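Step 1: inspect the first sequence and its tokens.
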Amino acid sequence: MKHVLLLRFSAMGDVALLAPVVQAFTQRYPNTRITLVTRAKFAVFFEQFPNVCVAGADFDGQHKGLMGLIRLFTDLRRMASFDVLLDAHQNMRSAVLKSLFRLAGVPSFTIDKGRAEKSELTRKTNKIRRQLPHSVDRYACVFDEAGLALHPAKPFQFPSFTTAEAELAAFLNQQSFTYNTPWFGIAPFAQHTQKMWPFERFAPLLEQLYARSPLTIFLFGGGAAEIDQLATLQQQFPQAILVAGKLSMTAELLLISRLRGMLCMDSGNMHLAALSGVPVLSIWGATHPDAGFGPWGQGEEAILQISLDVLPCRPCSVFGNKPCWRGDLACLNDISVETVSARVQQMLH
């Protein structure tokens, strides 16, 4: 086998979780190439691996709709001749591309997302609680089924993003802080409210953290609304360094790799930190690590959540996109500032 076509279009954290698998593949099969079809902005996660090419998919533009997918298929066929297609996404777009490549004689293998067992874990009554396979392991299984056995590193660390050294140095030189204090990241946001600890608690949290020991805090996020909230927080704590919107993805990953730890939600930033070899403290609400999305290579020390004995309704969804059955989001609201502060102190010492 000479060339593998790999599909995983989004979301950021899910695409990043392919990195341990792709790295393991390039190490075990150094003479086989991979073309990964994903959004162009995610290419940074794979640029350090040999024999890996990222084909940028533009589903908002030239690859939108059925005709766009046919155009993407045609473009890929022009790029190379593929021996096998591995579908690590399993959605309508990947199904169309698989059908087109099958007509062209390219066999395919598809991820088992475990939808039935995830439904059993998250249903309102008679939940079946068990640790489900991690997304990284599910990705590896697709390769295994294609006869390409591999073993992703656990824990994993992105290769150093040396190309961003100058950009990061210029950013840090503009800040006022002491280099010999621990660097700590805070990423307060996630895609859905049911996965976010109340934002108004971060001000008292920062107050406690700064009072206990010298610390340099970096604030991470993305998008205009999140940046506005973080800017408001920074006004209260001018010594905090706002990273959101200031750096390229490459430079941000380089900065994350130098942190002592990261406080985050069940979010893309959790995965980026864990894949950077950085200890995380992730706060979980409506979702649960048992669904297979926990920080790769880290254990219970990386998780902060209300016990299932206290809130047996958890988890109520896989992705945190469903309304709270209780109506009070106790899974998040009942986690105190003091609890989070104490766990952060454990990470730092």
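Step 2: inspect the second sequence and its tokens, then contrast the two.
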Amino acid sequence: MFDSPLSASPYEVLGVDPAVGDDELRRVYRLRLRETHPDTGGDAAVFIRVQHAWELIGTPEQRAAFDRSRGSDTDWDGWRAPTVRTDTRPRPKTYGEPGVRRRARYVELLREWAGHEVDDPYAPSVVRAAPRELRRLLANALAEEGTADAAASLGMGFTLWHGVAVEPEGQLDHVILGPSGLYGVTSADFGGVVGFRGGEITGPSLGHQAPVTTLLAQVRTVARAGKVRFSAALVVLPDDDLAMAITPLGRIRDLPVAVVRRSALPGLLRSGLPGTRVIGGNELFDLRTRLRQSIRFA
């Protein structure tokens, strides 16, 4: 839960200084529980984050272990690029590489910010010291890779395209084709719990971003280029940032849109969103051919 480059620490979630005494920490935790409890009007997702924060630093032993881990880069590789997988189970046909474009940009901008070559751009101490916009790039690269990894469990009936180029100078993170439909998918990590208003994702960390609006524009671009019709558009977020596994936002510009926990993505893609049309036989083959001919990578 706190492994995102944008994640707040347990101390930040509870709203205390890391040097706070144990008794005061316990008092603030109980207060935050009351404030965030759904039965008293609080947000369920924030309530869960408060509970998990306490699990990490609630006892002197847990707190000391957490503080040591935050101060050390030893044997921690959670932000590095994934290694080659050895899983031999049948996987979907896959094109492109998730996260590559954003990782390259992160390393480039980190070098400019530091003013020199950085020996290990993924060392936790380096990542935490970097400006938020650089950490956001890395967080979204990790989100892309996480979605790709989740979708890889779908099996041979699906085809995946990662890092699909769209104009101007952008990318649609994933195009996923299978018997349940054709999906345009964006992966994101906003560093905290999000909300929804007017068919868009909202939250204090989003600023002026409009991820649903951007996703729909990207889907239209790919649809025009390939002369295909998408079944739905999906935004995939880390599990802890959503109170529900799947949050349908309704039909927006005549396309069903939903926000999905990463762990819920494979099940949704197998069953399809309610109202999406099943694709099979020759149509599935035709769509795959059109997309293979038209898709270019960012």
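Step 3: confirm your contrast with the notes below.
The chain has ten helices and nine strands. The first helix runs from residue 10 to 14.
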